[in-house]
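Example record

One chain of 134 residues, shown exactly as stored in the release files.
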Amino acid sequence: MRRMEMGRRAMRGAVLLGVLALSACGMRDDERAFADAAALTGGDPVAGRTKARRLGCGSCHTIPGVFGAHSQVGPPLKGIRGRMYIAGVLTNTPEHMVRWIQDPRSVDSTTAMPSVGASERDARDIAAYLYAIP
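Predicted structure tokens for this chain:
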């Protein structure tokens, strides 16, 4: 009896994985990256791209997809999702990224990164965009 129940659970799990895989097949890689980043951060990556430009992130960083963001004062932000640390101090998690964007000096009082006046929503959206770019 127990073996039969385990078999049913395994079958349901396999069916669910199949459905998820088929639904993901219809998405382009960039759409999937945006959806994954939104789920990970609770932010809106499309809004984040706009907010990164509006808040002047490109004044210091090179950010793919953000108009005019070609500066080399701070590190380039391409591939930041795959990095181990944020600012060499925080482990790279969505919550730490939001905290860093919102108030970098609360993390490192000597950082050159300015506070740009990002609200939590702004920071969450920008984090979503940064995690969406490869």
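Notes: The radius of gyration is 19 Å.
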